[in-house]
From TrEMBL:
Main location, first listed in the record: membrane
Annotated source species: Brevibacterium salitolerans
Subunit structure: Homodimer.
Annotated ranges, domain CBS: 207-263
Protein name, per record: Magnesium transporter MgtE
Highest classification ranks of the organism: Bacteria, Bacillati, Actinomycetota, Actinomycetes, Micrococcales
Localization annotation: Cell membrane; Membrane
InterPro entries given in the database record: CBS_dom, CBS_dom_sf, Mg_transptr_MgtE_intracell_dom, MgtE_N_sf, MgtE_transporter, SLC41_membr_dom, SLC41_membr_dom_sf
PANTHER family the record matches: MAGNESIUM TRANSPORTER MGTE
Family classification: Belongs to the SLC41A transporter family.
Length: 455
C-alpha cells in the first residue's frame, strides 16, 4: 500500500521558518520562499504569527506585495505591525493607503505615533485623512473615501468624460459618478457605462438618475445593510445639507459586514471578538475576550441556584422532579435563543423596527404556543408512561409554559437592546439562557406544587 505523503507548500515552509530560530540562512530562505508564495497565503502566514516574526517576513516582500498584504490584514494587526516595523518602509505603505483605510489604522495606534505618521503625509493626503478621522468610529463617514470624482450638473457628456479621463487615477472608483450642483450639493449619479454610450453633446442632466445616498453620521452597519439591499457598487456620502463628502465602495461595505458578523457571532457565544487571527493572539488576549462574559454569566447563574434553594423542600417530597431540570432549562434556553437570533437578524436587515415590538411579541407568543404544544404533548406521553400521569401532566404543562415564556423573552430582548442603544447580539444566547433557566424553574415548581399538591 502506498504511503500517504503530505506536500509542504511554500506557505507552510515560511510559517515553519518564522516559528523557529532566525539566522542569516533562514532569513535568506524566507526571502526566497516569499517570492513564490501567493499573496493570500502570505497574508494568512503574516496574520498567524506574532507581529515581531511577521515583521521579518514583511521586510522580505516587494513593495507592491507588501502593500497588498498589509491592506488585507485586520486593522488591529496592522497597528501591531506598524509599532513593530516603524522606519521608512512602513511610512511608504501608509502613504499609499486610501484615506479611509489609513484612518482605520490610525484609530488603532497610540495618539503620538498616529500624529507622527500623519505629519509625514503629503498635505492633501493629510487633509483627507483628518476629515475621515473626524467622524465617530461607528459612523459611516469613518469608512468613506473622500477621494471622489464628481461631475457638475451643467456639463455635457463630452466635458464629463474629459474630466473622468483627466482624473482617472485619483478616486477609489469611477463606475458610479456623483453629479453635483452649486455648493457641491448632490443632484444624483450617473454610471460610467451610460456616460460612455451617450452622445457627446447630450446634457449630463439627461443622464443623471436619483442617487441612493447616506448621511456621514449614519451607523456603519445600517449604512452597509442599505448599500447591500439596493445592490449598489458605490454610494455617495453626504452631510446634513446634502453636500457631497465622499463615496462608499463595495470593499468598504464587505469589511464592515465581516467585522459586524464576527462581533455578533462572538458576543452571541459570550465572548468579545478578537482583533487578529486566533493563532497570532496571545493567551492573555484570548482570556480577556472571554473572561468578562464568564464572570457575568457566573454571577447571573446564581439566580438559578437560589431558585433551586427556594424549592428545595419540593424536591425532597418528589425527588423524581430533579431528573427533568436539565431538560427544561435546556428547552427554555434553546427556544429563547432561536427567537432572539431570528429577531436580531430581522432587526439588522430592516425587516423589524423598534415600533414593531407588539407585533413581534404577538407572533412569538403564537410560535411558542405551537412549539410548546408539540413538546408538551410529547413530554406528557413519555413522562406519563414511565413515571405516572401526574408527573406527565407536570411535564406537559411546564414545557408548554416554558416555550411560550422563552419565545416571548427571546423576541423582546433584541428590540429592547436596540431601543436603549445596546448591541442586540449581547442580549442573545448568554443572557437569555440564564434568564430562561431561572424563570423556567419557577414555572416548573409552581406547576408541580399545584398539580401534585405539594406544600
Amino acid at each position: 500500500m502506498a504511503e500517504n505523503t503530505q506536500v509542504s507548500t511554500p506557505a507552510d515552509q515560511l510559517e515553519a521558518l518564522l516559528e523557529g530560530p532566525l539566522n542569516a540562512h533562514s532569513l535568506d530562505e524566507i526571502a526566497h520562499l516569499a517570492e513564490s508564495t501567493p499573496r493570500p497565503e502570505l497574508t494568512r502566514v503574516i496574520g498567524a504569527v506574532p507581529p515581531v516574526r511577521a515583521a521579518v517576513l514583511f521586510r522580505a516582500l516587494r513593495k507592491d506585495t507588501s502593500l497588498a498584504v498589509f491592506e488585507a490584514l485586520p486593522p488591529g494587526y496592522q497597528a501591531e505591525l506598524i509599532r513593530t516595523l516603524r522606519g521608512p518602509e512602513i511610512a511608504a505603505i501608509i502613504e499609499e493607503l486610501d484615506p479611509d483605510d489609513r484612518a482605520e489604522v490610525f484609530g488603532e495606534l497610540p495618539a503620538s505615533l498616529a500624529k507622527k505618521l500623519m505629519l509625514g503625509l503629503d498635505p492633501d493626503e493629510r487633509e483627507m485623512t483628518a476629515t475621515v478621522l473626524g467622524y465617530p468610529k461607528e459612523a459611516i463617514g469613518r469608512y468613506m473615501s473622500p477621494e471622489v470624482l464628481s461631475l457638475r450638473n451643467d456639463w455635457d457628456a463630452r466635458t464629463a468624460l474629459e474630466s473622468v479621463r483627466a482624473r482617472i487615477d485619483e478616486p477609489e472608483t469611477v463606475y458610479l459618478l456623483p453629479v453635483v450642483g452649486p455648493g457641491k450639493v448632490l443632484e444624483g449619479v450617473v454610471s460610467l457605462r451610460s456616460l460612455l454610450a451617450a452622445d457627446p453633446d447630450l446634457p449630463l442632466s439627461a443622464l443623471t438618475r436619483e442617487a441612493t445616498s447616506v448621511h456621514a453620521l449614519t451607523d456603519r452597519e445600517e449604512a452597509a445593510r442599505e448599500f447591500l439591499s439596493h445592490r449598489l457598487i458605490a454610494m455617495p456620502v453626504t452631510d446634513e445639507e446634502d453636500r457631497l463628502l465622499g463615496i462608499l465602495t463595495m470593499d468598504d461595505v464587505l469589511d464592515i459586514m465581516d467585522e459586524e458578523d464576527a462581533e455578533d457571532a462572538a458576543r452571541s457565544g459570550g465572548a468579545e471578538p478578537l482583533d487578529r487571527s486566533y493563532l497570532s493572539s496571545s493567551i492573555l488576549r484570548i482570556v480577556r475576550s472571554r473572561i468578562v462574559w464568564l464572570l457575568v454569566l457566573a454571577v447571573s447563574a446564581i439566580l438559578t441556584v437560589q431558585v433551586l434553594e427556594v424549592f428545595e423542600s419540593k424536591l425532597d417530597q418528589v425527588v423524581i422532579l430533579a431528573l427533568f431540570i436539565p431538560l427544561l432549562t435546556g428547552t427554555g434556553g434553546n427556544t429563547g435563543n432561536q427567537a432572539a437570533t431570528t429577531v436580531t437578524r430581522a432587526l439588522a436587515v430592516g425587516e423589524v423596527r423598534v415600533r414593531d415590538l407588539g407585533k413581534v411579541i404577538w407572533r412569538e407568543l403564537r410560535v411558542g404556543l405551537v412549539l410548546g404544544s408539540v413538546l408538551g404533548s410529547l413530554g406528557f406521553v413519555v413522562a406519563g408512561l414511565v413515571y405516572g400521569w401526574p408527573i406527565g401532566t407536570v411535564m406537559g404543562l411546564t414545557l408548554l409554559s416554558i416555550c411560550v415564556m422563552a419565545a416571548c423573552v427571546g423576541g423582546l430582548m433584541p428590540i429592547v437592546a436596540k431601543k436603549v442603544g445596546a448591541d442586540p447580539a449581547v442580549f442573545s444566547n448568554p443572557f437569555i439562557s440564564t434568564f430562561c433557566d431561572a424563570t423556567g424553574l419557577i414555572l416548573y415548581f409552581t406547576i408541580a406544587t399545584v398539580v401534585l399538591g405539594l406544600h
